[in-house]
Amino acid sequence: MTKGSCPLNIIPKHIVFLFKYYVLALAYLFLFRVVLFVQYNLEHGTGTILGKGVPITAFKIGFQFDSVVLSYIMLLPFLFLSIASFVKIKPVFYKWTHYYLSVLLAIVFFIAAADVPYFNYNFSRMSIVAFSWLSDADMVVGMIAAEKSYILYIFLFLGFYLPYFFLTRRILKRTLNSNNQWAKPRPFISAIAFVLIGFILFLGVRGRIDSPIRINHAFYCNNSFYNQLGLNPVFVLIKSSIKNNAIHVIDDKAAVQEAVNQLVKNRGANVSYHSPIAREVQSGKPEIKKNIVLVLMESMSANKLARFGNPHHLTPFLDSLAANALSFDHIYSAGFHTCNGIFSTLYSFPTILRERPMSSVDNKRFSSIPKVLKDKGYTNLYFTSHSETFDNIGGFLPYNYFDRIVSQKDYDPAKVQSAFGVPDHILFEYVLEKLDSTYYGQQPKPFFAAVMTVSDHGPYIIPPNIDFEPHTQDIKKQIVEYADWSIQQFMHQAKTKAWYDNTVFVFVADHGVIMDEVVYDIPRSLHHVPLVMYTSDTTVIRQGVCSNYGGQIDVLPTLMGLLNMSYLNNTFGVDLLKEPRPYAYFSADDKLACVNDSLLYIYKTNGKKDLLYKYRTLSTDNMMSRLPKEGADMKTYLFSMIQASKWIITQDKTIEKTTNQ
Questions:
Q1: Buried b (16+ CB within 10 A) or exposed e, 249-285
Q2: CB count, 10 Å around CB of 565?
Q3: 175 lies in a domain?
Q4: Are 168 and 94 members of one domain?
Q5: Where are the alpha helices (DSSP H) in 338-413?
Q6: Are 348 and 407 contained in the same domain?
């Protein structure tokens, strides 16, 4: 060895070159994880960055997942430069490698930056679900552009990526200017480096020595946030894109039979049905053909109401209405996306993980309550503030028994406020106008009107020049106050209409939102929603509280019971006033849950893990081993309903057919 030489000079230059890129990228991914940790704690946690200490283990696990992603990215450059090293690496080879890595890592950094707000909203790392709205890209881009808080994450991406790019450019220049870079090739050294570094990259791709790393390897404690903190969003995104929604925890035949046992009390006399869950509902009383207005309230978690403990008095009207109406206090949304809430509320079928049935290429008909009402002479109307192409509303609902969709095309363009169209109070003005024209039409019919509000969804915009004054300072609280005020204005104006006394009003949320500190893998505030049924005719609906557990799938079957409607029920919904459920159940993209008055069961499809909690006490102890029967019963009920629903859809049994048809 010559004087002044360094032992590291024996390492091939292309290995040193790639290693520097790798270490630098690893450091930046660590910083993205720090940002997520800080941001989440400030928004949903204790309010202080170190309120519960730094989860060192989560960051160690994060190093493993980040290494896997980077090892995959480094594989091709490593093979390319290593093969070239046996002959001679030309300067342009390093430039090609630099630009290749720059593009891929720009994508990685962008996903990592976008994952921060995505996680804060969904309490899950970014998955393929985030791209399910590509068909509505114009609306989504408009929403993002209008949401000012997202600008911070664009700056986060640029603030991390641009320094990384310039630092790697510096590494590239130093490598190209290295004095001995273009020395005579050393095949023996190159061969040893190829084998050794190749083996290290192989371990990096696996993530673990004993077995390839999986998502469930990130779950190391009872803190749901810490368990997800270690995950890499690119890893989760890719895994979710190659995973299907098939669920076979129990035998399909057994699942269908258990669903039949739970749902079917009376099949009907002398008839066989195409669907195993089809059953006759006979009221034995004269039908009450009242108009129905169903309001699906955007993001109205039960946690926003004073009735459920909110101390900020954000919803005085809804709280007052619930106190003077029939309130169902243990209702859960089928999923946490608006499309889940619309589909499950209107058609009484559960949400199956991340599926979007209204956007399926193979549109199916569901012989649920809209069909029942249409057959009974109702006019079915659907009101949305934005374009009807979003979530394929304009394609699915008319195919499934809605007579008209009122959407952004029907409103005064001057009143459109954002990518989501008109604000709530304007939407309700149009609802009143159209219901008047329906009621006073040439051939008056009872109407069923479903109204999907939107204002309580970012970007949050309080319309100017209206008679509304919020009493809170936070825009996220103010928009809830505005949503409540809009409903109040609607009901006050409706009271002046001739059809008011002959109308039942139903208020339920499409889903909730994450509020306060999250204890479990599925935040209850994201699914626990209010359900209120009201009419001025107290002979039909009296003031009261129903404490039975249920879901959006039960809304319309329960209403049919109140209206003494006889019909053929081919759905998973029940009349909660007459057929109490043992549990409510719901989906959260890659997780499923089942809940009763004391226990919360969660099944994580990533890792197929069973969790059972005594949620009333906020205990994080998994009780599956201590309460095996309770856990098994909840699991059986949950998967029977979900798998039976999937089976009925895939077997084209969503339309009931008798043997005589």
A1: bbebeebbebbbebbbeeeeeeeebbbbbbbbbebee
A2: 21
A3: yes
A4: yes
A5: 338-347, 369-375, 393-399
A6: yes
**349: number of Cβ within 10 Å:** 25
Reported as a single tens digit per residue, the pLDDT across 568-618 is 999 999 999 999 999 999 999 889 999 999 999 999 988 778 999 999 999
Eight-class DSSP state of 10: G
* Dist. CA 592–CA 634, nearest whole Å: 11
Do both 233 and 355 map to the same domain? no
Q: How many residues does the chain have?
A: 661
Q: What integer pLDDT is reported at residue 127 of this predicted model?
A: 87
- Tell me which residue has tokens 């935040």: 523
Asked if residues 297 and 456 have their Cβ atoms less than 8 Å apart, the reply is yes
3-state SS record for 121-161: HHCCCCCHHHHCCHHHHHHHHHHHHHCCHHHHHHHHHHHHH
What are the tens digits of pLDDT across the range 168-194?
999 999 988 875 544 555 677 778 878
**3-class state of residue 501 by DSSP:** helix
Domain count, the chain: 2
- Say if strands 503-509 and 447-452 run parallel, antiparallel, or are unpaired: unpaired
- 660, 281 Cβ separation under 8 angstroms: no
Q: What stretch of H or E contains 424?
A: helix 424-439
pLDDT digits (tens, 9 = 90+) for 13-52: 889 999 999 999 999 999 999 999 999 888 876 544 444 5
What is the rounded distance in angstroms from the CA atom of residue 220 to the CA atom of residue 453? 40
Mean pLDDT of 446-467: 94
pLDDT in tens, 536-560: 999 999 999 999 999 999 999 999 9
Mean pLDDT value across the chain: 90
Residues whose CB is less than 8 angstroms from the CB of residue 228 and which lie 6 or more positions away in sequence, other chains included: 119, 123, 124, 125, 218
- SS3 for 642? helix
- Record the tokens describing residue 161, joined without a space: 């990526």
Q: What is the extent of the structural domain holding 30?
A: 7-241
Among candidate residues 332, 303, 313, the one with its CA nearest the CA of residue 44 = 303
